[in-house]
Every structure is written in structure tokens, then in C-alpha cells.
Design a protein that fits this description.
The chain is of the alpha/beta class. It contains 12 helices and 10 strands. α8 crosses α9 and α8 packs across α10.
Length: 392
């Protein structure tokens, strides 16, 4: 295979034949370089991490599940360093290209996985999503991409950063393949409660760029026809929708600081300015700084659960901007990250599933629309995605 997109970890041959037969016979997949593959070092996007860790002795649960269902692993894909990023830039291994929007970033931190799927190098790919690392590249690259309910898919054998946010997600170009992969990762799902209410989050649409609102409006109108009830709502209270990200960020930062601090203190690794900045700021978060965010998270979970009940999905833009250009200045990139988290924090803070629908574009650049479901509604959300894709 020729990797013209720079999606795969350089100088790393990692091909594993299927270990069984099943729903994914004949499909190929890639795994973000946060997933263990037996006999290979999990590099986590940083050469000092790779240097200080031994080869995995077993496959990550998600990798093993896809292999067992008949898929072939054909490589490990580039990630932002230790998964701390949303734009897909890696100064050590390169920045995977976005085949759907040349000259723009693929999005991170699951950048290589999204690039490989969008460029048809593989049928599907595993990614991780803590603060938006599947949803963002799915939106930027025009893919189906899912962040599942927190804890719904095993993260055993996956390098984690923020345990109360980390999830295993995946990408596909095709809704049917997307659903087949999801069925394998999610396992049996007995819940057949229909999803027949659509809630349109007006305050989420209010903070996106005008061109995003413009191209998503007819998509929202079209998918609305699938539901028996359509309501416009405001997700946030008087504090405003950006309060979700304001409270999410210190919680996630405190967790990834605790995760990486022992390794950093022992090995004094090299980092890009973006990751070094994030880790430095995270080290300043005190226990007192987390009191209000923890209370807000509890209230946010209750607010979203009350809105959705068991039969509704929340409709919102996946990200508020178009994919930035690869050569944008550092300061602009950081502003882009801040704006992205303004929307991706919602499902992450509440621990609920979210799926990106690749149904729109602005002047050829993909624009993502998302559906957020009730906690544990992952399988029903996948069925809904297939229905909507078939009707589009």
C-alpha cells in the first residue's frame, strides 16, 4: 500500500491477518497509534514515549474485536502527541493530509485514522475521543464518526489520558460499514426503544460561523422529516452554552496531568509547543479549581438526560468552523481549538454518544452535523444513522 496522505506512522510495518470470520469479512482497518497491537510498541505520537515503552504483549480489546470479526489490520495511524490535540498536527511524524479538503488539516487527535479512511486507504479505522478527537476529524474529513457512551466500549489496551472522558470510537465513509463495525464493537443491544423526537439546539447553532449555519440548515430540514416530533430548544441555561467547555477543560486537564506526570518526571520527554503548553497549564489546576466544574458536570448530565428522555436526539453542528488551513499561525490554531471545544465538550462532559453525519459541504469543504443520543442509546443511534443516510 502506498501512503500518499502521510496517514500511517512512518517506518512502522504493522499488518495483522484476521483471527476469525464474521460481519467484517474482507474489510480492512487501521488503528490509531494509541491502540496496542501485539508485538508492536504503542508510540502515542511521541518518539520519547515510544522509546520508553515496550512492545505490547496482546491486542487492545477493540483491535481484537475487529480482527475476530474478519477484518485485516493494515497499519497504525498517526495521532497528535499523547492524544493532546484537535487539529492533527504532529511535529515528529508529520501532519496527515485531508483528502476531502486539500491544504486543510484533517483534525485530531485521530488525524491519521480519519485521513486513511477519507482517502480510501482502509474501509474503517479506530480512533479515540476524549475531548472531540473522533468527532472533529470526522467533521473535517466528511466521515461518519462516533464517540460512544462513556464506558460502553472497552478501552483495555488503549493508551488513555483522561479516564472519565476517554472513549474508543471509529470512522467509515459508508453508513452500512459504519454500522457493521459498530455492531462488532458494541456487541448485542436489546434496547429497541424508538428515537422519534428531534431537538434542535438553537444555542449551539448560534455560535458557529455563518457558512456552517447556512449549509446545515437544509440538512436539518431534511432529516427533520424522519421524526414524529421536532422541537427547537436551548441546551444551556442563563450561563450560556460556552459554560460547558469552560467547566470541561479543567476537569480533563487535571486528569491528563495526573496520567502523564509520572512519565514526564522520569523521562523529561520532548514535546511540541502545543502539547507542552497544554501540559504546563494542566499542572496549574488545583483541587479547589475543580469544585465548580464537578458540580456543573453533574447538573449538565441531569439537564441533558431530562431533555432527551429515552426517545430523543439532540441536533447540533459537530464543530463551529471549517477545517483550518495547515499553515495557519499558532495563535490562530489555538483559537480554533478553543472554538471547537465549545461544541465537543457537550457530549464529553455528559458521557453520552454522539455521531457525525457527513451530509454537507461549503464550497467543497466538509461540514459536519451531529446527533447526540441518550446515555446507552449507541446501537439505536447507529440504526438511525443508516436510516437517515439511506434517505439522503
Amino acid at each position: 500500500m502506498t501512503d500518499d496522505l502521510g496517514a500511517f506512522v512512518p517506518n512502522t510495518a504493522c499488518v495483522v491477518a484476521p483471527t476469525g470470520l464474521g460481519q467484517l469479512d474482507g474489510l480492512t482497518f487501521a488503528a490509531k497509534d494509541l491502540f496496542d497491537v501485539a508485538g508492536h510498541v504503542t508510540g502515542s505520537g511521541n518518539p520519547d514515549w515510544a522509546r520508553t515503552h515496550s512492545p505490547a504483549t496482546r491486542h487492545a480489546d477493540a483491535v481484537a474485536a475487529l480482527l475476530g470479526a474478519g477484518a485485516t489490520l493494515i497499519g497504525k495511524t498517526i495521532t497528535d502527541e499523547i492524544s493532546l490535540g484537535l487539529l492533527g498536527r504532529n511535529q515528529f511524524y508529520g501532519t496527515p493530509r485531508n483528502p476531502r479538503a486539500p491544504g486543510r488539516v484533517a483534525g485530531g487527535s485521530s488525524s491519521g485514522s480519519a485521513s486513511a479512511v477519507a482517502g480510501a486507504l482502509v474501509d474503517t479505522a479506530l480512533g479515540t475521543d476524549s475531548g472531540g478527537s473522533v468527532r472533529t476529524p470526522a467533521a473535517f474529513c466528511g466521515l461518519f464518526g462516533m464517540r460512544p457512551t462513556h464506558g460502553r466500549i472497552s478501552v483495555e489496551g488503549m493508551a488513555t489520558q483522561s479516564p472519565s472522558f476517554d472513549t474508543c470510537g471509529w470512522f467509515a465513509r459508508d453508513a452500512q460499514i459504519f454500522a457493521r463495525v459498530g455492531a462488532v464493537l458494541l456487541g448485542d443491544a436489546a434496547d429497541k426503544t424508538p428515537i422519534d423526537r428531534l431537538l434542535i439546539a438553537d444555542d449551539a447553532f448560534a455560535i458557529v460561523d455563518p457558512e456552517i449555519r447556512t449549509v446545515l440548515a437544509p440538512i436539518v430540514t431534511r432529516i427533520s422529516q424522519h421524526f414524529t416530533s421536532v422541537e427547537r430548544t436551548r441546551l444551556a441555561g442563563p450561563e450560556g452554552i460556552l459554560a460547558w467547555s469552560a467547566h470541561q477543560r479543567p476537569l480533563q486537564a487535571a486528569e491528563f496531568h495526573a496520567t502523564f506526570r509520572p512519565w514526564i518526571e522520569e523521562h523529561v520527554p520532548r514535546f511540541s509547543i502545543e502539547v507542552g503548553r497544554s501540559l504546563t497549564l494542566a499542572s496549574l489546576v488545583s483541587e479547589a479549581d475543580l469544585v465548580a466544574p464537578r458540580a456543573f458536570r453533574n447538573a449538565a448530565k441531569a439537564r441533558l438526560a431530562a431533555l432527551l428522555g429515552e426517545d430523543a436526539v439532540l441536533c447540533l453542528p459537530t464543530v463551529p468552523i471549517l477545517a483550518p488551513y495547515i499553515d495557519e499561525p499558532f495563535s490562530e490554531m489555538m483559537r480554533s481549538v478553543d472554538r471547537i471545544i465549545g461544541l465537543t465538550a457537550i457530549a464529553g462532559l455528559a458521557g453520552v454518544p454522539q455521531v457525525n453525519l457527513p451530509f454537507a459541504a461549503h464550497e467543497g469543504v466538509p461540514v459536519g452535523l451531529s446527533l447526540v443520543g441518550p446515555k446507552g442509546s449507541d446501537a439505536r443511534l447507529l440504526s438511525l444513522v443508516c436510516e437517515l443516510a439511506g434517505a439522503s
